[in-house]
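Handout, section 4.2: multi-component inputs.
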Amino acid sequence: MDNRLTRRFFLKTVGVFTATAALGSWPTNIFADEKKLVRLPEKTDLILLTSRPPQLETPLHYFKELLTPNEALFVRWHLANIPTSVDLSQWRLNIGGNTDREVKLSMDDLKKLEKVSYTAVIQCSGNGRSFFEPRVPGGQWDNGAMGNVTWTGARLKDVLNAAGIKAGSVDVTFNGLDSGPLPTVPDLVKSLPVDKAMEDDIIVAYEMNGAPLTMLNGFPARLVVPGWYATYWVKALTDIKVLTQTFEEFWMKPAYRIPDNACGCVEPGSAPKKTVPINRMTTRSVIVTPTQGSGLKAKKPVEVMGVAFSGGYGIKDVVVSVDNGKTWNTARLGRDLGKYSWVLWYHSWRPAKPGKYTVMAKATNSIGESQPSDSLWNPAGYLWNKIEKIEVNVI
Amino acid sequence: MKKLLFFSILAIALGSGSVYAQDKGAKDMVVTGNTKSITLPDIATPLKDGPGKEYVEGNCTICHSTDYINMQPKMPKAKWSATVKKMVKTFGCPVNDAEMKAIEDYLAANYGTGS
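Output:
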């Protein structure tokens, strides 16, 4: 058999086989809700949301690992003209605006700056949007618009200092190679307040997991704003501009805004009075195994496991319930790769008797931020972090 | 089946160490000198048949594939109208009022809640 066919077959069936291996019996909903898998360049088979521009979701089983493989990381572009060919001898990172000088950095120049690495969760603002009730339009992601990757590159601070930020600077904008098919389509330009842009941990990354970025994840360089939603992690970065006023073009306003209150939420179905740009990620835990609807055997041990992360403050603990939230057990945490990484958590469970069980997990970060038991609604479908429940059948 | 299961688990075990591996086997990515290029596949998602479909296929696809439509939750007509209005007024979809209405009607009839 053709290697590609074999691989396709393997990937389409792997979720089922791993569930079987882990649980010792067949899940009951193998064929329910089947999703279309597609394979794009430098990528493995991923769940198709849209093809042009591409939006691809990572199948849940990849989150059994601490690091998400490059070929499995989700893909999300906004505008149809995405870069499909980049000549590094021509590519430059241009820095200008309210700076002492205009600077054009080649990839070699960028690599001469101090090289730093962080493992950081990348998560789409709309990850989990499909769980909102009432439903909201937009990319209908389940939990696969996220991943945990080791990013390597130059500090944004060093890049900005190469140009020299002048007094009176307010915002810094970031633009990449993508563009809209009509001149009327607003170009994807994002901004950060200048103080945020000068923080130590923001990098212009040219490597993911030790390899050059894949084209679909932003080759040759992208912004990495650890702890913040991926809307700021501009791909195929080419232009950085320092401004003396607040930047409020389309993709900063009205797009990617959240209600201006502590929960970032409003009464379901209503519109917020005041909004702010989305920013730091909320605290989340996601159950990876067992999967929703799995069949388990009574008295047979099963490992409940998943991932947990927060917007840059590390995870203090994860608690797991197997009785619909009546009692909670502290999960074991896996290796700690720093405050921006996710941790894997594990809870060994031996279902005592047959029946339906509701499994829940709840993470709390080091500054006490946790997850709500009711969903917090907002009109764009952002910040999803409700305590998730999965049901399993024990026989 | 048992054999297949064994090999699947083996492949997972071997695969789990390959976080750093890029898929160099795929011919749809090439590096020539300093240039890296990819070729994206054509992925077609058919729309439901109905009056106005031709306006959707002729205009909405200037900016995005039809799966943007299939992906959305079923929405009442008012929400579809708001979405189409955003595409026309904010993004500049080049349709006249009659075409815009035909698109709204088509989406509400075929991808709506019926309300």
